[in-house]
Amino acid sequence: MKNYVKCLGIIALVAVIGLLAACGGEVPEKTIKVTGVTAEYLKETKFEIQVRADAFTPGEHTVAKGDGRLSASTVTFDLYIEGSNSTRWTDKGTFNLWLFINGNWVAYADIIEIKDAVTTIPFSKFTFW
């Protein structure tokens, strides 16, 4: 009986370690999807988004950015660490988003929580200048 309990204990320990290893693996790369882009912007050719720690300091405190791919009325941005075009951003938290269209800063969204691999934000959440 002692050996039986000992064996069950070892099996349980191995199962827990395996579960922790499987769940605690990689941190997901972040992507932002902006849905419901209005008709006036659907003809635009270049979308860029910047994830910033401070909404009121233009050009500073950018932690990630991405170029957008427009499909139907959704723009998808794969996020990269600021200053890198190859290292994907994996951070999470609450940030401010700045939206550039054709190289011009046109809108921002305050206090957006980014925690999952894909964060979906309605276009109407942005405040336009």
Structural account:
19% of the residues are buried. This protein has a single domain, classed as Sandwich (Immunoglobulin-like), CATH 2.60.40. Helix content is 17%, strand content 43%. Mean pLDDT is 83; it is low at 12-22. By secondary structure, the protein is α+β, with helices and mostly antiparallel strands.
The amount of beta strand, in percent, is 35-45%
Q: What is the count of DSSP helices, taking H or I runs of 4+ residues?
A: 1
Structural class: alpha+beta
- What name does the CATH topology carry? Immunoglobulin-like
Order of helices and strands: HEEEEEEEEE
The description of the largest β-sheet is:
9 strands, mixed
Amino- and carboxy-terminal Cα gap: 75 Å
DSSP E strands, number = 9
Global mean pLDDT: 83
Gyration radius, rounded: 21 Å
Helix content: 10-25%
User: How many domains comprise the coordinates?
Assistant: 1
Return residue spans where pLDDT drops below 50 for at least 5 consecutive residues. Answer: 12-22
User: Any guess at the CATH architecture?
Assistant: Sandwich
Principal-axis shape: globular
Write down the CATH class.
Answer: Mainly Beta
Label this structure with key terms.
129 residues; alpha+beta; Immunoglobulin-like; globular
Question: In summary, what is this structure?
Answer:
The protein is of the alpha+beta class. 17% of the residues lie in helices and 43% in strands.
